[in-house]
Amino acid sequence: MASSGKVLDFEEYVRNRQDALLRSARRLVPDPIDAQDLLQTALVRTYGRWEGIADKSLADAYLRRVMINTRTEWWRARKLDEVPTEQLPDARVEDSTEQHADRALLMDILGVLAPKQRSVVVLRHWEQMSTEETAEALGMSTGTVKSTLHRALARLRQELESRDLDFHALERNERGQERCAA
Asked: RNA polymerase sigma factor 70 region 4 type domain location, by residue (predicted)?
């Protein structure tokens, strides 16, 4: 009978926390379908160890760690289909509102970060975890979290500036072509 109690406890936890957990997964991988797969994989892996989590209030942190580890495994195992190019593709904008455009750009730009950097940025800024909580969740020292976050934010700034310069150069080029055509 203890086994069915375990199932009910886990099912209740998932029912109560599934939206927040899916948001966390969505922040770790840009594709919504991949985020669902990531969460599902993390839940399957966590279910087998559910009884071992003595303090269930730490279940979110445990699941985030499992998602980060799983995402890292996927990243390492992926086939390198990416081809470096001089020109970055335009950011996808699914909605015309500025907020959605900013979100799409941010998700696109997060893709330039290494998995470790992306994990630190997501936990510190989206999940609003402290440096110490982030260090504990990722199994690294607080100094490593700080330096990784510093490098990641510098890389994001550089990428934003690069895209902004590319956009302005394109605008100037288009205006020049319009003048020549007139």
From this structure: 105-156
